[in-house]
Amino acid sequence: MTAKRRVKRRRMRVLVLLETGTKPPDDLESLSEQERHDFKMETDVLTTLEKLGHEVRVLEIKHELAPIREALEEWKPHVVFNLIEGFFGLRELDQHVVSYLELLLVPYTGCNPRGLVLARDKALAKKILTYHRVPVPNFDVVRSGRRPRRAKPLTFPMIVKSLTEEASVGIAQASVVWDDAELDARVKFIHDNIGGDALIEEFIDGREIYVGVLGNQRLTVLPPWELLFENTAPGAVAIATERVKHNLAYQKKHGITEGEAALDPIVRTRLMSMAKRIYRNLSLDGYARLDFRLRADGTPFFIEANPNPEIARKEEFAQSALKAGIKYERLIDMILKLGVRRGTM
I want to staple 194 with a disulfide (CB 3.0 to 4.6 A). Which of 51, 170, 264, 316 is the partner? Predict the structure, then answer.
């Protein structure tokens, strides 16, 4: 019996980019369970990078690029671990930070600027994928300040959401509308409270399925994951609202859990193949989560792409990777190496 070779990891200087206010406090135990939950991804990534033996520094940014350049010139990190989801308080500006890293020829983790732009605009992503024969719900965009004019292909019920926001921002039970009056009211809510344009699309009654993908050229597709609703309130629809995604008390009250999706083998194969096509056609790399609604007849409809998704240890991406035999430490190491390899291509 031959002994396994012990592979020595390269110790790297890793600069972790965070948005201002997202760095975990030193004394997490003094926080409530919900407050600790809000820092879970940053905590898990930072502690794991240190556990892997890397030298880690954190840089919080808000509206200036100069501190990034200063940190790069002073410390000379081997790679930047990018955990920002916006810049200047706007999600749609995060790609510019990544573009800045590319101009400085610095390797970084996660998605490239082109992929971030294509995925951020949900309507644009759907137009591209429709061309590539990926099923998507009928949809339209209502520009800020305008009222919806429902085209004939759009039928009720519909769901109304922000065109560019992620993480279920602005999504609630009221997002699913059943007539023109509700449609007008929800579009106005998006314009006035979330800001920006509104996306309206036919609501696909079905299961909420996520498929994670890792890789730059060679792709690893993770097992399809499902958001499960055990105690949906009477009259409510099973959708990933802000409370469903982020409120621990609400999750416990309504029995909201996640787990590997039990799928017919043909549907599973189709979903995973479709995930690869979507990932490539939207120019994604690094890692991403692709969201689908699965109709009762087995037809998966692409809903949106989430480059650089939540990668906390207990969340769907990491749990799906674990199901595929990728432990959390290895997952973070893979993401890190994908970023380093981008810098040598």
Answer: 170
